[in-house]
Write a structure and sequence with these properties.
Elements (H helix, E strand, L loop, with lengths): L2 H4 L5 E5 L4 H12 L3 E6 L5 H4 L4 H4 L3 E4 L5 H10 L4 E4 L5 H6 L1 H21 L4 E5 L27 H20 L2 E6 L2 E3 L10 H10 L4 E3 L4 E2 L1 E3 H13 L5 E5 L5 E2 H11 L5 E3 L15 H4 L8 H17 L8
Parallel strand pairs: 1-2, 1-4, 2-3, 4-5, 5-6, 6-11, 7-10, 8-13
Antiparallel strand pairs: 9-12
Helix pairs in contact: 2-10, 5-7, 7-8, 9-11, 9-13
Length: about 325
């Protein structure tokens, strides 16, 4: 039975990079909805997932330890588990790509080509995958205001270059094989389980506040903040909604000063001091969402204040239960 026939039945999801922040939230949502889901990750460390799902709740998930650079392993997983939907999130973040460019290219570029080719050979017709704000250049590369989702890419990091390559791969697979895809480009994702990557510091500030400690964020300026729980739902919707083409969407939203985010954390948890640098990251202030809200309209965006409050409250519970510790 092909993937198209199976899609009429209950879907079967493959989530790559499922032990990361967004991946853990995707598993959380799919598990809560009673969906069939296969976790595919090189790591078998479930610490992030454990912040969202109990061991009993994790029993409904099939865990496969796999390397994206191993094409045979990836294809056999799709076929063995009769996968009908893919959410591809696996990638090495900015600092890791900078430290080991060759490994970064193997995982982020070759790994993504493997996902597309395995999907094609397994008979899938659509997939969702993660791109990034890092495909764009610094603010001076663009006119004032929000950058359009079809603005020219101008990445200034290897991570951004690799993500740009992935979007090119997606276009060619649509052109040559009619394998459609939807890329989402988050800006600053925050929430429980966000503990690494260039823009993880606002979340680390929330964790520090939950522990009653001060924190200094190493950058400033303006950016768009996306609640991890919302982003995970958006990737699920992107996987559930085939579009005729290779689409890339910015997640949009109002730009917020990092200093305002710091003030918000202190307002929600008085008694701690959260500060930030003045220097902005080399990305645009904000990105326009284009047709994202029209083509993928089902997801709801949690207001920043509520998302920060939920994150700090969740962190407090995890700290009290001994699931987390704050570095001295």
């Amino acid at each position: 039975m092909g993937a198209t026939q199976q899609s009429a039945q209950q879907p079967r999801y493959l989530v790559t990079g499922s032990m990361g922040c967004i991946g853990s939230w995707v598993l959380h949502h799919l598990s809560a909805a009673g969906q069939r889901v296969v976790s595919f990750d090189l790591s078998d460390d479930r610490r992030r997932l454990g912040l969202l799902l109990t061991p009993e709740e994790q029993q409904g998930i099939t865990f496969v330890t796999g390397d994206l650079t191993d094409f045979g392993r990836l294809l056999s997983t799709l076929e063995e588990h009769a996968i009908t939907r893919i959410i591809h999130l696996a990638a090495l973040q900015v600092p890791f790509c900078r430290a080991d460019p060759q490994l970064g290219a193997r995982v982020n570029v070759v790994g993504t080509v493997n996902v597309f080719e395995a999907a094609r050979q397994a008979g899938l017709e659509h997939l969702a995958y993660a791109s990034s704000v890092a495909v764009y250049g610094p603010p001076e590369s663009y006119a004032p205001g929000l950058v359009a989702d079809d603005a020219p890419f101008d990445p200034r990091t290897l991570y951004g270059v690799y993500k740009q390559a992935n979007e090119g791969t997606a276009r060619v697979y649509w052109q040559d094989h009619q394998l459609s895809s939807t890329a989402l480009r988050p800006y600053t994702v925050y929430g429980v389980a966000r503990d690494q990557g260039l823009t993880s510091e606002p979340t680390k500030a929330m964790l520090a506040a939950a522990a009653g400690r001060d924190y200094h964020i190493g950058f400033g300026g303006y950016m768009q903040f996306h609640y991890a729980a919302d982003v995970a739902r958006q990737f699920i919707e992107a996987a559930d909604t085939p579009l005729a083409g290779a689409y890339g969407f910015n997640l949009g939203g109002a730009p917020v000063a990092v200093s305002q985010l710091a003030d918000l954390v202190m307002e929600i948890r008085p008694g701690v001091t959260i500060t930030c640098e003045d220097t902005a990251l080399p990305f645009p202030v904000g990105l326009a969402s284009g047709e994202f809200d029209k083509l993928l309209p089902m997801t709801v965006t949690t207001p920043l204040r509520e998302g920060v409050r939920q994150t700090i409250t969740h962190f407090e519970r995890c700290l009290a239960e001994g699931q987390l510790a704050v570095e001295s």
